[in-house]
Amino acid sequence: MPSTIPQLHTEFLERVRSEVARDTRLNALLAGGSYIHGGFDPHSDLDFVIVVEDDSYPEVMASRQEFAHRIGDLLSAFTGEHVGEPRLLICLYGPSLIHVDLKFVTSAGLGRLVERPAVLFARNLEHTEALLDAATIAWPNLTPEWFEQRAWIWLHYGATKLARGELFETIGILGFFREQVLGPMLHRRAGRPQRGVRRMESMDVRASAQLARTVATHDAVSARAALLAAIDLYVDLRSDEPPREVVRQMPEALFSHLKESIGATQ
């Protein structure tokens, strides 16, 4: 357990542990996220993995909402298809608000993990630890090719929205680009897992300053400056681990497009 954990989180964790222990269909309760990485504070989520008996898995999956209701005052919940994880139930509890993720897996689901979770409860601790010891644990870092194939399409999209005067759209694509491309590449430069822009302000002052230049206000001049900063930062970060093949005519073609469509000089 982290050296310091807020009282609200402690109480909630104990309720989840007790409920898992009471339900014989459930074999283990694991915790990830801030619980194991550090930086746990009153704003942290609770990220749980619940290991289910194989034969009971369909039944448990069908009644996940009931389990979620049993562990606290559930305000809202939805499943994680939007992040490619249908096994995940994303929950908000209150009235003291706390975000809780409940992922239900079988033992086979522990074969590939993005992190080594902490074991909070296990009916057979030795077996659970053995499964975790045998797991392939790797953060899903993206390749230079993944970034290069997408970056210029997304940047061009932002440029077209700017040219049309759709500033909210331009601001939105810049935020998306920071999360999907620039943040991960800045973490890559520092030798960290590619976790979007998570905790960038506290982890890396220089990287934060670079990202800040890509943040636009609702103003065409500001949006254009932010877009140009995003292009420059991507090209700089790309040089760390160049892709096998770069997109032809970039960034020159995009700079020309910006000049022609917006009528401004570089």
Overview of the structural elements:
- The chain starts with 6 loop residues before the first helix and ends with a helix.
- It is of the alpha/beta class and 266 residues long.
- The chain has 11 helices and 8 strands.
- This is Nucleotidyltransferase domain-containing protein.
Might you state the CATH topology name of the largest domain?
A: Beta Polymerase, domain 2
Oligomer: single chain
Question: Which regions have little confidence, pLDDT < 50, spanning 5+ residues?
Answer: none
Distance between the termini: 53 Å
Can you tell me the CATH architecture of the largest domain?
A: 2-Layer Sandwich
Describe the secondary-structure layout.
Elements: H1 7-22, E1 26-32, H2 34-37, E2 46-52, H3 57-62, H4 64-70, E3 74-80, E4 85-93, E5 98-105, E6 112-113, E7 118-122, H5 125-134, E8 136-137, H6 144-163, H7 167-189, H8 200-203, H9 205-212, H10 220-238, H11 252-262
Parallel strand pairs: 2-5, 6-8
Antiparallel strand pairs: 1-2, 1-7, 3-4, 4-5
Helix pairs in contact: 6-7, 6-10, 6-11, 7-10
Outline of this structure?
One of its GO terms (molecular function) is nucleotidyltransferase activity. Strand 4 and strand 5 form a beta hairpin. The chain is an alpha/beta fold.
